[in-house]
Amino acid sequence: MNLFGISKKTAALLGGGLLLAAAFVGSVPFLPNGPQEPTSVRIPRGAPWEEAVDSIRPALRFPILFRVWASLKNPPDSVRGGHYVLESGEGSRSLYGRIAGGWEDPVRISYHSVDDFGALAAKLSVQLDADSAAFDAVLRSDSFWVANGNIPKAERLAAFVPNSFEVYWSAKPEEVLVKLLEGYVAFWTPERKAQAQAQGLTPVQVATLASIVQKETAKGEEMPRVAGLYLNRLRQGIKLQSDPTVIYAYRAWRPQTKPVRRVLNYMLRAPGPYNTYQVMGLPPGPIAVPEIQALQAVLQAEKHRYIYMCADPDRLGFHRFAVTDVEHEKNRLDYIAWLNRRKIYR
Length: 346
Description:
It contains 14 helices and six strands. By secondary structure, the protein is mainly alpha-helical. The protein is elongated, with a radius of gyration of 31 Å.
């Protein structure tokens, strides 16, 4: 017996229990507390600590253990937020450190061809924390473009090459867009610049023609032929007479929300350098952000003698190509007759 009236055996048991309890408490921060499978969570930028905990709680095996550990660490009032991948074997200590410290995991984003900066802003906003208005404001800011190559307004769509990119979900719009501009540098290798030069084009002119080719056909196998046709017209001093450029110029001249389904004669009067029925050569810049497939179609354009094309009513989405006026007129009349049978007037 000791002073407290406890036997040595009981004291030993109590001591062992205390040691076990201490060991358990000490192991709490390291016990696996993540989900069964890696799980992504997003915590809003500047969220209060309790809101951050609520964001990850459904993914934790033992939410109470995380709260106990966090309470011992004096958590911040608010967090930086971001995207976090919770790993299955991760303990409360690691989870707390990453979220309290704002050590987020990057996300992979992607986008395809877009018609304008408003559409690009919308696509980015659904994948990241910033809203479309924030992205749009940067894209339309001259100061952003001056700081990133001093790119003229007409050429800015050419600065983007659709691909996938790793960025932080909570990154500022300026940071995300600078990352996207790296796609241009990655695409325009010395080999591709040499291919552009062989076609007699600059990279911006390649992007401009690619945007027209892409609007003319959605069929990847047809793009090199369409590109070759426009290159033939450029080299022979023939106006491109591309309907997508007319639509672009017309919508700038007479803004409207209704889509243009058919180019009519009065639309050909749309003023400006983008109407290739009126001006010779390429427009001053792209009419959309072209896909890599369209860029490659221009760089590796098919060699042929075609200078005319018309939608093929027998193979929707494809075109009929012609070398002479007579061939083209027949194709054109066939297509007009098909449109009229379906009463497609505008």
